Amino acid sequence: MATEETLVLIKPDGVARGLTGAILARIEAKGYSLVDIRLVEPDRDVLERHYAEHEGKPFYEPLLDFMMSGPSVAIRVAGNRVIEGFRSLAGITDPTTAAPGTIRGDLGRDWGLRVQQNLVHGSDSVESAARELDIWF
Ligand code: DAT
Ligand code: MG
């Protein structure tokens, strides 16, 4: 039993499409706990810190623009092995091919040109979770 905390973001496409409740329901149905939750409109500084690992990649600037296009919901989620577990619940990065049963697979739209729109973010390691939770909460 390894109780962990992870950062989940419901990104601007998820909030704008009215999927906040549907995504929260999946997190709760899995048995994870919502420890803290807030609606956020991050400025560029927050996003530069959050996405520091992607600086310089071709999708970096469009990604930051997208993340500043509307509000997101930031959630501190706790549970047994929740870091890996939530990423499994979210599905792979590209919703075009994410597996059915996952948030991105069931609710995400064909990536097409809207490459960065995949509904959710989940921390990818214990270190990332600690770093990201510190940025958003
Ligand atoms: P994930 O969100 O699955 O952890 P990531 O950390 O590799 O994926 O990338 C962060 C975000 O950047 C991702 O959610 C969407 C966008 N992104 C990643 N790879 C991309 C690509 N090849 N083209 C466009 N956007 C991309
Ligand atoms: Mg990532």
Automatic annotation (TrEMBL):
Q: Which InterPro entries match?
A: NDK-like_dom (IPR034907), NDK-like_dom_sf (IPR036850), Nucleoside_diP_kinase (IPR001564), Nucleoside_diP_kinase_AS (IPR023005)
Where is each Nucleoside diphosphate kinase-like domain found?
Answer: 3-137
Its EC top class is transferase
Q: Where is the active site?
A: 121
Molecular function per GO: kinase activity
Q: Which PROSITE patterns match?
A: NDPK (PS00469), NDPK_LIKE (PS51374)
The residues that the entry says bind ATP are 11, 59, 87, 93, 104, 118
One matching Pfam family is NDK
Enzyme Commission number(s): 2.7.4.6
Q: Write down the chemical reaction(s) this protein catalyses.
A: a 2'-deoxyribonucleoside 5'-diphosphate + ATP = a 2'-deoxyribonucleoside 5'-triphosphate + ADP
Sorted alphabetically, the keyword list is:
ATP-binding, Kinase, Nucleotide metabolism, Nucleotide-binding, Transferase
- Cofactor entry: Mg(2+)
Signal sequence span is: none
> Which family does the record claim for this protein?
Belongs to the NDK family.
Q: What is this protein called?
A: Nucleoside diphosphate kinase
Q: Lineage, please?
A: Bacteria, Bacillati, Actinomycetota, Actinomycetes, Micrococcales
